[in-house]
UniProtKB/TrEMBL annotation:
This protein's name: Tyrosine aminotransferase
Pfam family, one: Aminotran_1_2
InterPro entries xrefs: Aminotransferase_I/II_large (IPR004839), PyrdxlP-dep_Trfase (IPR015424), PyrdxlP-dep_Trfase_major (IPR015421), PyrdxlP-dep_Trfase_small (IPR015422), TyrNic_aminoTrfase (IPR005958)
Lineage, broadest ranks: Eukaryota, Metazoa, Ecdysozoa, Arthropoda, Chelicerata
Organism: Caerostris extrusa
Occurrences of domain Aminotransferase class I/classII large (ranges): 85-148, 229-354
Length: 355
């Protein structure tokens, strides 16, 4: 007997009710999630009027790729490692990340597709809608809050005591100003809510997410692999869970694992090469890169410091330099965006507004 398969099919044409065709064409709209997603720096750039001077070669000072100019390149040990077989990548990361007093095991490592992915996992696993995240300002366009440039962007620990900051999470970003945890939190023992009741985080902080390093308490740290090793296109990073008192427990670890399953995973070729890269890259490679960046930063700082109306902030290892602009010193400009537009049109030099 033939199998009946027509149960879900439409009735024959002669039995269908004829409805007037009023459709004028398709109108497919993006979801509310997509339309509500905004990258602040893209909004600024897209609204700016950028027409370079045709008589001058364009110089972009806003590109975050340290290798684009060609003078900074990964060493052979990094490139050769991609061609070799792999062991456990997380074991290699754990071994590479261990510091005195701060043990790390493979179970504490979550591989990510760069640091932006790590930030997404941070927020997704710990923050709920309506809660506040405390981050430095100015900073990486993915997050915002208050800070003080004259003190290398130390977080103002006094401000969050207001009632509307009752639920916040602490975060230290290193780009573009590279403020180090030694400066941001001189008393690392007060960073978790288990500290003295007089400490800020005893009142407010639930957890700390960091892309710097300190070893006193419980926090989550991200590591930007592809910039440190000058291979930005490889898109590799990782999260380290420092949980000395088992505060995060299985809940946070399982949550991170669940969020990681939303994508197919990180770059598997680079995963396989991680043990060799982390184990074989010579220290002089990092020393040379640091020296090159430091020399360029010192030159830029010295030159910019002599220009009236500009106040450069010396970075502590970042690949960007923030420069304060006294708009009143430059006639004809109402804000830094207008100044950047004019810089492009007259000199073909592209910077990023930071206001």
């Amino acid at each position: 007997m033939p199998i009946r398969i027509s149960a879900t099919l439409a009735d024959p044409p002669q039995l269908q009710r004829q409805e007037p065709n009023t459709r004028r064409g398709w109108n497919v709209r993006a979801s509310e999630f997509a339309t509500g997603t905004v990258n602040p720096i893209r909004v600024i750039i897209e609204d700016m009027k950028l027409t370079p001077n045709p008589e001058k070669k364009m110089i972009s000072l806003s590109i975050g790729d340290p290798t684009v100019a060609g003078h900074l390149k990964p060493c052979n040990e990094i490139l050769d490692s991609v061609e070799k077989s792999h062991l456990e990548a997380r074991e290699a990361v754990a071994s590479y990340s261990v510091r005195p007093g701060a043990p790390i095991e493979a179970k504490d490592v979550v591989l990510t597709s760069g640091c932006s992915h790590a930030l997404e996992l941070f927020i997704g696993v710990l923050a709920n809608p309506g809660q506040t995240i405390l981050v430095p300002r100015p900073g990486f366009p993915l997050y915002k809050t208050l800070a003080k440039p004259e003190k290398s962007w130390e977080v103002d620990l006094g401000r969050p005591r207001a009632p509307n900051y009752v639920r916040h999470r602490g975060h230290s970003s290193q780009q573009p100003f590279q403020s180090l945890w030694l400066r941001v939190f001189p008393k690392a023992s007060s960073i978790y809510f288990g500290g003295s009741s007089q400490k800020l985080c005893a009142h407010h902080c639930r957890w700390i997410m960091s892309n710097s390093y300190f070893q006193e308490k419980n926090f989550i740290q991200s590591h930007l692999f592809h910039y440190l090793f000058l291979v930005p296109g490889w898109r590799m990073g990782w999260i380290l869970i420092h949980d000395r008192n088992d505060v995060f427990g299985s809940s946070v670890r399982n949550g991170l694992q669940a969020l990681c399953q939303r994508i197919m995973g990180t770059n598997t070729i680079v995963q396989g090469a991680l043990p060799a890269i982390l184990g074989n890259t010579p220290q002089n490679f990092f020393n040379d890169v640091i020296m090159s960046v430091k020399i360029n930063a010192s030159i830029a700082f010295s030159v910019l410091s002599e220009i009236p109306g500009l106040t450069p902030i010396m970075p502590s290892g970042a690949m960007y330099m923030m420069v304060g602009v006294d708009v009143g010193t430059f006639s004809g400009f109402h804000n830094d965006t207008e100044l950047v537009e004019k810089l492009v049109s007259e000199q073909s030099v592209m910077c990023l507004p930071g206001a």
